[in-house]
Structures are given as C-alpha cells and as structure tokens.
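worker-03 picked up job from queue 'complexes'. Input manifest follows; six sequence lines, order preserved.
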Amino acid sequence: MGAVKTKRMPRAVREQQMLDAAVRTFGQRGYMAASMDEIAELAGVSKPLVYLYLNSKEDLFTACIRREAAALTAAVRAGVHPESAADRQLWDGLRAFFTHTAQNPDGWSVLHLQARTHGEPFASEAAAMRAEIVAFVTQLILAAAREAHRDPDLPEREVAGLAEALVGAAESLADWANATPGVTETEAAATLMNFAWSGLGNLMGGRPWTPPGTTHEVSG
Amino acid sequence: MGAVKTKRMPRAVREQQMLDAAVRTFGQRGYMAASMDEIAELAGVSKPLVYLYLNSKEDLFTACIRREAAALTAAVRAGVHPESAADRQLWDGLRAFFTHTAQNPDGWSVLHLQARTHGEPFASEAAAMRAEIVAFVTQLILAAAREAHRDPDLPEREVAGLAEALVGAAESLADWANATPGVTETEAAATLMNFAWSGLGNLMGGRPWTPPGTTHEVSG
Amino acid sequence: MGAVKTKRMPRAVREQQMLDAAVRTFGQRGYMAASMDEIAELAGVSKPLVYLYLNSKEDLFTACIRREAAALTAAVRAGVHPESAADRQLWDGLRAFFTHTAQNPDGWSVLHLQARTHGEPFASEAAAMRAEIVAFVTQLILAAAREAHRDPDLPEREVAGLAEALVGAAESLADWANATPGVTETEAAATLMNFAWSGLGNLMGGRPWTPPGTTHEVSG
Amino acid sequence: MGAVKTKRMPRAVREQQMLDAAVRTFGQRGYMAASMDEIAELAGVSKPLVYLYLNSKEDLFTACIRREAAALTAAVRAGVHPESAADRQLWDGLRAFFTHTAQNPDGWSVLHLQARTHGEPFASEAAAMRAEIVAFVTQLILAAAREAHRDPDLPEREVAGLAEALVGAAESLADWANATPGVTETEAAATLMNFAWSGLGNLMGGRPWTPPGTTHEVSG
DNA sequence: TATGAATGAGCATTCATTCAT
DNA sequence: CATGAATGAATGCTCATTCAT
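worker-03 finished. Artifact:
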C-alpha cells in the first residue's frame, strides 16, 4: 500500500509523493481527521521527513491547496481557446472544469470542502483561486456583452453577482454530476449553459426579470 | 459572554441553550476544532450536563444540523405563498433564504460547510434538507412550465440538474452577499432571478443554447 | 426491568431492594464497572435515595459484602448439626456451601472475587467471613482428632494450614461445579471429602507424607 | 521511585520496563483502579509511548497476564524433574509454585485476582494457564495410580475434581503463606502434601470416605 | 538524506456525588 | 419520602511535533 518504498529519491520527487498522499488523505478523511502518521505511511516515508520537507500540517495542507488550485485552473485554461467566442469559451471551460473535478475527486474535496471549512489561512487560499475563476467568468460576461454590441450598463457589482451565481451553479453541478451515476461532463455543461446563457442574454438584451412591486407578507 | 448563568432550569430550556452554544461554536470553529469544553462553557453549564442531555458530540452536532435545517426550511416556507405564480414563489423564497442565512451565519455554516465536510452521518442529514429545497425548486420549474402552457419535454434529469444549478447559485450568492458589505437580500435575490428566470424561460420556450460544433441532444 | 416501581415503601424494604440490585450489579459487572446509576435504576429508585440510605458506593458495597457473608455463613450453619460427628458436620457443611454458592452466584462473586480484588476495606470484610469458616473447619479437624482418641501433637499453625487448604479446595470446587454442567453439590462435596478426609485421617494417625531428604536440583 | 529515566532505549527494553510497571500497578491497585498515567510514570516514560508500544489498556493488561502466566508455568516446570516419582514431582512443583508466588506477589495478584475478576478477555487468558496446571496435576494423579499398580476406576470427572481441589488448595495456601509471617514455601508444600497425598492414596487404594446415610456411588 | 524513539498538550467521555425542591 | 438538575475530577486515548543518531 502507498508508494513503493524506494530509498534516496530526489527531493522534488519525494515532495510530490507526499503531496499526493496528503491530498488523498485530506480529501477523504478531512483536514482534521487526517493524521500526519497516515499521510507519511501512505507516502512511504517517515514522519520526520514529511516535517523536514513540508514543515507542518498547516503548511502541508496549504501546499495541497495551492497545488490543486493550480492544477484546476491550469486544466480550465488548457481547455479554453482565448480567441473563441465568449459562449464557446464558457462552454469549453465548463467541460474542462467538470472533467477535472470528476477525475480528481480528492483534490476537488480539498479545494471545495476542506479548505473552505477549516478557517484561515486555508479559506483565503481557496478563495484566491475561486476569485481567479470568478474573474475569468466576469470577463466572459463582459465580452459577451461586447460581442452583442451592447455596452452593458450593468453595474460592476451586478456582474460580479452574476459571475458568483454562475460559478456557484457550476460547483453545485460538479457535485451533482459526481454523485449521480451516468451524468457526463458534457451533459452537466450543457445543463448549465442552457440555464445560464439565455438568462445572461436576456439581461444584456435589456429584458431583465422585474420584481413585483409589493413585498409578499408572511401568511398574508 | 455566554448565557447568563441561571441555575436550575427545566431541561427543555437548557437544551436550547446548549444547542445555541453548539451551533455558534460549530459554525465558527468547525466540527472537529470545536471542543465540548468550549460549548459547555458558552452554554453556561458543565460538560457532564451536555452529555446527559445530548449524549455525545456526534449527537449534539446532529441535533444542531436538524434544528438549523428545520429553521431554514421553515423560514423559506413562511416566506412563500403557495398560491402565487411560480416566479413570485421563487422570488419570495429566495429573499427568505438570503435573509435567513444572513441572520444566522453560524447555522448556515453548520448546514452548508460543516455538515457536508465531516462525513456520515452528518452529510446525509444536511443532504436531506437540501434535497427538500431542490424538490421545492423542481416543483416551481415544472409549475412555471405549466403556467407558460408549455408541457416541456424536458427530461426529468435535466430538470433536476436545473434545480441543482439554481440552488447552487443561491448558496453561492448567499456566501457572496454575506461577505460583500452593502449587498441586500433583495439585491441578491434580484441578481439570481435575472440570471435564472430568463434562462429557464428560454429553455421552456424551446430555445436552448446549442453547443458549437455539435448538435445538442436536449430537445434538439 | 428491575423491581416494580412502587412508591412509598418502608425504609427496610427499599434498602433490601437496593442491596439486591447492588449485589446483582456488583456480582456481574464488578465493583468498579458497576455504576451507581445502573444500581439505582435496577432498584427502581432515584440515585439520591440510594445515597440517602446507603451513603456511598463504598458503604453500599460493604453492606453487600456483609449481607452476603451473613447469608453464606447462615446457610452453612443451618446445614450442620453441632451434635453430629466431625466428618458428618464437614459433609453437611460442604453440601450447604456448594448449594448456597450455586444458588447465589452474584453473592458468591461479590464475596469470592470482587471483595478480595478491590483492596481495603473490602478485602478485610471478606477475610473476616472467611476466617470464620476457616475457624469452623479448624474446630472440626481438632474434633476429629479427639474423636479418634488422639491428642494431636499437630502444631497450631499446621492445623491452620490444613484448614486453609480445605477451604481453598472447597472454593475452587465451587467455581468448578458452577462452571461444569451436570456436577451436583453432592458430587462436589463427595469429591472433596474423599480427597481431604483420608489425608487428615492419616495425618492424625501419625502417618504423614514425608518429604524426600534431598532438594531436587533444577535440570540436575 | 520508577525505573531510572534513561533516554533512547531500544523498543524491546522499554516494553519490558512498561510491563514491569504495569504488573506492579495492576497487581497493587487492580485493573480498573490502575491508571495509564500511573503506569507510564512508574515506567519512566510518557503515556503516548505506552500506547505506541502496547496499544491500549486492555492489550497492556493482556500482555501482563501472558507474561506472568508464562513466568509462573516456567518456574514450576523448571522445578520439576519429569523422571521423578509422581509424589516427588508434585512436591517439587509445589515448592516452585510457592516460591514463585511469594517472590512475585504482584504477578500472582494479576493472575489469581485481577485477571479472574475483570471479565473477558482476561478471564479466559488466566483460565488457560490454570488449565495447564490442572492438567499437569491430573497427569500426576494418574501417574501415582499407575505407580501404585492400581488402574483406578476413578471416572475422569472425579479425577478432574481432585485436581481442581488440589490446585485450589495450593492457591489458597499460597495466599496464606504470603500473609502469614514465617511460613516457608517448604512448610506450605509439606502441609499440602500431607493433606492431599494420603487422601489420594486412600482413594486409589479403594478406601474412599463414604457419606453417612447414603451409599456413595464412586467405586462403592 | 532519513528515521526510531519520545513527548506535551488536549479531547471526548464517564462517574460518584450533591443541591434545591 | 423522593427526585430532577447539576458538577468536579478523572481517565483512556490521540496527535502534531521534535530530538538524537
């Protein structure tokens, strides 16, 4: 079990083995329930070596978050052609996102569940990556508006909210797709595009949904 | 800082005090980092009494999840008038949801973060409540389709995915609204309605977004 | 489960119910593993009442030891006719002893196991009862010598040792009989009489077993 | 008072130190009253190390029982010459037994009191050792019968009962000798040989003690 | 580079015991 | 006579972390 116990490996390799083991353990057991003992054993090294290379449980977890965040954003970036139309970029990015999360459930658990749940400094670390994605989506929304030859008078915060909503929907669908047998990444992406893109289009076309003038009273 | 130390209260009252303290502690520290000592102190009682009434940390946490889940669904239900139009129901429900989560950040953390992160039996407990909400949203989507006199040929799973996406977007916006100063519940709800409702309308109007290069199979 | 919960009973009755419950619990769970909670519940009363009547766990246990010790010695005494011949008295006493221990396994456990195992003041309490039995047996041995018209030049300590051995053998056979299905009290008593009486007779007849003159060397 | 606090010892050595401390503590305080803290302190190590090496209080106690059982049977075996006559073997074995128990009072307490008092799995562990000794004594009784050229028609269970009685008498005398100042092992052994051997001889010689009023069925 | 040996500190849980009514 | 409410004090066990080699 765990990596084959080979002696005297270069540091970089050893570190990756440790991070592999850590992501797996953190993803499955959770940050607090994961023990350094288990991680070291799974990595096939002694505990002091883990501390020598990664310093502390906190640092190790942070390193996991960073590595998985980098891997996720890289995957999405790799799936997107910057010259494509905005909707095509979103479509490609979503498929890359769903594919990556489906193939890296432990990494996704680390980023989406563990890092957000266990306070600082982890939450910020994960939030930074999420902000990057939200920013990317924000750009796509603005680009779509430009493509539609509509200089959107959407206030900045409204666009930010839309991007948040879209990213939140995507995260939710990722979990749903992973939990529902038979749902493909393409299907999840299509569901979200259908859901979101027309709404965005209407918005930018100046046809927003309008709230009713009266607030409905409880048991009124 | 905890509850005023009044002696000799009836069990039911003490139990609520304990649950208050527990939700606060679990919500802020996280399930594992929260210590029974801290909860007892915050509740103004001794640890043995917590165990006498709530049995174990697991049971205590489960009780928190159940109470907060009940409170959240009750709040949403109370905000919705079942005879209203579907969009109105969604609008009212969302505002109630954003209001409740903004006013109960610890409860929301327990439900949305802690319960999902720390495995069984907590995850199932929270999933049950979420499923209830998703089911509610699903009904609204179908009702909207009926109201539009369009018996949608949307496959069941597609509708489920849409509801998931909508709920995920709402959850995400709740966090965003809580973290962004100055964002009101009404604003968050309006953002989501704008984002979602037109998209749903187009979908049900038979005008889905079609993936490039491929013919998308849904109602294609 | 436990005694039927009747209110307002005279103190003496309640105390016996508590002692019944305590003997059963101490006998089965052991002194330390038995909890006052369990005893109170089994007795059908509240814990404070147990403390009101019996003071403390220690006192409660001590009371159990005394009651069971009294019951055991009473049973043996009741089985013996003081006018009988010495061997007849031993025979009757043994049968009474085996019968009583077989019918009161919890009491026997309290006396033979629990009391001796958990230090002072319990060990002394049980030792007192045992000393009584040993004294009784000692008298029988001396009586047997008189009956054989032999003023035994057995030193006092030798007789004490013989009585100890006999009592120890009896205790051991009680456990053996209780653990071996189908062994009757009569059978156990007969086994012990056969084993012991002839040996005593020979002893008193001046034909003791004589140790070999040399000490056998290990692996010599 | 504990072992001299020497740092960095090989595991095997430390384990023995821990077992020494544990036997002493369990023997004197009893299984339940002994705390792991006390054992660790007496062993001169920290508690985590005790858990690292011995796993749990249960495992630690079991290890104690096994070690002490092995030591006791080894001591008896070492004292007995298998080619000697049966009575000589018994005599030598008894002296070894009394000597060992006198020199290892804590171990004897663990085996004879604690292990039997605290339920499974400890009772079985101690019972296994005791069964070994009973079997040895049983063999000696049968050997004695052969040596007397008397194929005894003693039923198997009768012999088992005799062995039980003899072992029980020995256990009792061990406690008595330890508690009575000035009683040597040789004296205790002689007392028991006197008590037992002639009785056995008579039995095998077909002269059992017969119960009054009834015809005793064994070889009657 | 790598590890066996070792620990300080903390945590969930339980229990005998006592008030206030 | 009787009890619901409450707690101080342990106890078994685990974990992140470090030192000596």
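worker-03 released lock.
Residues 213 and 220 of chain A are 16 Å apart (CA to CA).
Residues 58-204 of chain A form a domain with the Tetracycline Repressor; domain 2 fold (CATH 1.10.357.10).
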